[in-house]
Amino acid sequence: SRELFVLTYGALVAQLCKDYEKDEDVNTCLDRMGYGIGVRLIDDFLARSAVKKCRSYSETADMIAQVAFKMYLGVTPSVSCSSAAGNEFSLILDKNPLVDFVEELPAERASLCYCNILCGVIRGALEMVHLAAEVTFLQDRLKGDAVTEIGITFLRKAEDRKHKRN
Amino acid sequence: VPVSVICSPPQNYPLYIRSVPTENELKFHYTVHTSLDVVDEKISAMGKALVDQRELYLGLLYPTEDYKVYGYVTNSKVKFVMVVDSSNTALRDNEIRSMFRKLHNSYTDIMCNPFYNPGDCIHSRAFDNMVNSMMMQVC
């Protein structure tokens, strides 16, 4: 049923493109939808994978790449840490099942992040385990880059932020 | 050796036309257009639709002047027409069949693209590359 899933996602993106004129609006919408999925998916993930609590950001990033992506999309992106502070990571996907049938973005949609829903999912899931993060696409094969790269930047923990405000 | 490829949905307007070499293109368009009538004839003559690869391939439609025209229709009534130079006797039936099968596969890939609306003209680079390589093989 993977083809059905991929075709459904494609239909979703195509419909959003018809509903919204600007690419940024479509991207925001996808991210919001992904967020809604992520906050719910995290419980399913934790229940099915029974992993222990991650003790560092790099463990978390590895967990996302090797367990979560494998479980839900069947691919394992490679993780690399891209900052000295240890809070920025990038996941490099060489195979992305969501774009199996999409050859290239249509000319009028050049800045569309086709898989932006993934960013929202990761962001939502992390938030539910009290890790605030910014997730964006750094490179996208559909836009002509060599690989598809998702960047995760872990922000200070939500409790820390509240503490600092006081 | 000119080869021309065209597909057209039930309303019989072309989604994609390519010919090599590009002079006399209008003549090929005309040839292909008239052959569409023959295709329609064959389809109606077939009676009950048979979902068999062999039935999809219509074979040699009719030899005209110095060209041979082959046809192929999908279950969704999309017609593929190929015009080949008669002097190219090296082309066997099996090869024509496999070319049509490749065309059909590429066509289904295009259909799966969420940004493609059925009935649009085909502007896909992958499709162009596939057709080009096929025509190079024939020439």
Question: How would you describe the overall organization of this protein?
Answer:
The complex is a heterodimer of chains A (166) and B (139). Chain A has 166 residues and is an alpha+beta fold. Helices cover 50% and strands 14% of the residues of chain A. Chain A is built from five helices and four strands. A four-stranded antiparallel beta sheet of chain A has the order 1-2-4-3, covered by helices on one side. Chain A is globular. Chain A starts with a helix and ends with a helix. The model of chain A is unreliable at 158-166 (pLDDT under 50). The model of chain B has no long low-confidence stretch (mean pLDDT 74). In chain B, β4 and β5 form a beta hairpin. Chain B contains four helices and five strands. At the A-B interface, α1 of A face loops of B. Chain A: Homodimer. Component of the multisubunit TRAPP (transport protein particle) complex, which includes at least TRAPPC2, TRAPPC2L, TRAPPC3, TRAPPC3L, TRAPPC4, TRAPPC5, TRAPPC8, TRAPPC9, TRAPPC10, TRAPPC11 and TRAPPC12. Chain A: One of its GO terms (biological process) is Golgi vesicle transport. Chain A: It comes from Aptenodytes patagonicus (King penguin).
Annotation keywords:
heterodimer, A: about 170 residues, alpha+beta, four-stranded antiparallel beta sheet, 5 helices, 4 strands, B: about 140 residues, five-stranded antiparallel beta sheet, 4 helices, about 25% strand, globular, ER-Golgi transport (chain A), Bet3 (chain A), golgi apparatus (chain A), transport (chain A), NO_sig/Golgi_transp_ligand-bd (chain A)
The unreliable regions of chain B are none
Question: What percent of residues of chain A adopt helix (DSSP H or I)?
Answer: 40-55%
Largest sheet of chain B: 5 strands, antiparallel
User: What is the chain-wise order of helices and strands of chain B?
Assistant: EEHHEEEHH
Count of helical regions of chain A: 5
Encode the helix/strand succession of chain A as letters: HHHEEHEEH
Termini gap of chain B: 5 Å
Overall mean pLDDT of chain A stands at 86
Count, helices of chain B = 4
| Class derived from helix and strand content of chain B | alpha+beta
Strand content of chain B: 15-25%
Strand content of chain A: 5-15%
Strand order of the largest sheet of chain A: 1-2-4-3
Structural class of the helices, strands and pairings of chain A?
Answer: alpha+beta
The major sheet of chain A is characterized as: 4 strands, antiparallel
Number of strands of chain A: 4
Q: Overall 3D geometry of chain A?
A: globular
The value of Rg of chain B in angstroms is 14 Å
Question: Which stretches of chain A are poorly predicted, pLDDT < 50 over at least 5 residues?
Answer: 158-166
Main location (chain A): endoplasmic reticulum
InterPro entries (chain A): Bet3 (IPR016721), NO_sig/Golgi_transp_ligand-bd (IPR024096), TRAPP_component (IPR007194)
Subcellular location (chain A): Endoplasmic reticulum; Golgi apparatus, cis-Golgi network
Subunit structure (chain A): Homodimer. Component of the multisubunit TRAPP (transport protein particle) complex, which includes at least TRAPPC2, TRAPPC2L, TRAPPC3, TRAPPC3L, TRAPPC4, TRAPPC5, TRAPPC8, TRAPPC9, TRAPPC10, TRAPPC11 and TRAPPC12.
